[in-house]
TrEMBL record:
Organism: Lentibacillus juripiscarius
Domain SpoVT-AbrB: 3-48
Entry keyword annotation includes DNA damage: no
Family matches, as Gene3D superfamilies: 2.10.260.10
Matches recorded under InterPro entries: Repressor-like_regulatory, SpoVT-AbrB_dom, SpoVT-AbrB_sf
Name recorded for this polypeptide: AbrB/MazE/SpoVT family DNA-binding domain-containing protein
Presence of keyword 4Fe-4S: no
Coiled-coil ranges per UniProt: none
Length: 82
């Protein structure tokens, strides 16, 4: 399978690859560079608020609630804000 690179550096991931990786519009992908080429993977998305707290016991102490509500580390920032 092949994809053509546009003048803006964009490619369209072929439909079969999107289906195999279960990629949907808005999903993030990651690229790993190896000696033999590049691997593309579906990135793990951050959990929604509902997913983060669906099994949570709201009878916990204030400290436990604050700990659970802290931001998740999603990795390094890609660029700087302007």
């Amino acid at each position: 399978m092949e994809a053509k690179l546009t003048s803006k550096g964009q490619i369209t991931i072929p439909k079969e690859i999107r289906r195999l990786l279960n990629l949907q519009s808005g999903d993030a992908v990651s690229f790993e560079v190896h000696e033999s080429g590049v691997t593309i993977n579906k990135s793990r998305r951050p959990l929604t608020i509902q997913e983060r707290f669906e099994n949570y016991d709201f009878n916990n102490s204030k400290e436990e609630i604050e700990k659970a509500m802290r931001e998740i580390d999603t990795g390094n920032d890609v660029g700087e804000e302007r």
